[in-house]
# Entry
Amino acid sequence: MNTLYFNANNDFIPTCSDIIRAGGLVAFPTETVYGLGANGLDGNAVNGIFKAKGRPNDNPLILHIADKEMLYSLWESVPDTALKLIDAFWPGPLTLIYKKSARVPSEVTASLDTVAVRMPKHDVALKLIEEAGVPVAAPSANMSSRPSPTSFEHVLHDMDGKINAIIDGGKCACGVESTVLSLVGTPTILRPGAITPAMIESVIGKVEIASAVLSPLKCDEKVLSPGLKYKHYAPDAEVIIASGSPKEASEKIKALFYEYTSSGKKCIIFSTLSSFPFYEDLPCVTIGDSSNPISMCANLFSLLREHGSKYDCILTEAIESTDEGLAYMNRLLRASGFKVI
Ligand code: AMP
Ligand code: MG
# Structure
């Protein structure tokens, strides 16, 4: 397939919204990561997303909307908790899950009776959805299991020739996927993001956090969110996380670095800004300031892509898994396959 490229400043709207309405696939920037969009009311179009990404069919998609009214046609009803959260956080990186209406095709929800919806905070995304006039089903625009794309180049690498169009909107401001919150029963965070548990609790009171956010699923555990089952964000290289204080973690990393290097493995260290001096002249890149974990997420995806195929092993430190650190540690643990020393 010949993929068309558009600049966000050019007139991408008529062609790209036509492609969406006609059942094609368009990758577009959002404030979180790039999305791979299709008409969310057209089951065949949605199947195209699964095919292009190699995504397992039982992993449901998020519907993106540009206007709050659209939600009323996608959910059975709109609970008060949702209205409060929408007032506080939409447009923005918060996805809400509730019981679906008959209008939503089973391809979007992987046959679940709930559907995930969000309103992105990005002019290009909002214009595209508005002009298409339909909810746009969109997972991240990467090959399944790979790090999410935070730039046009990442999307091009994974999707060129597989989809109809890509809109270049530069780097994503937030750089990590939305927080996913289920409002069925006790509100439960299924995926952490830039909207933290404390921010949500300040609006609707206590929320739960799905246990699979920071640990692998146990065999007999009920899968709240199918996406939690799968390998995710993984580069070719082995990723190993060192726990403990920055000093302890860096000692573990250096010991493993020498052990692996002597057995012929090529290793690189991803360091936080404050730990950088511990690694002296070892090969090391800075992933960011641990006081700003959300910015570290965006760097993580892009560094995993850049170094993941050049090295055998990536060694990095754990950070506090509270507040925004929860989103970072969720992505890092999954990228490593939960390999912590
Ligand atoms: P992505 O499309 O890559 O941003 O991933 C979307 C995430 O939301 C995945 O982890 C999905 O499993 C999850 N998700 C989407 N719809 C639902 C739903 N109806 N119930 C539970 N999780 C969902
Ligand atoms: Mg994804």
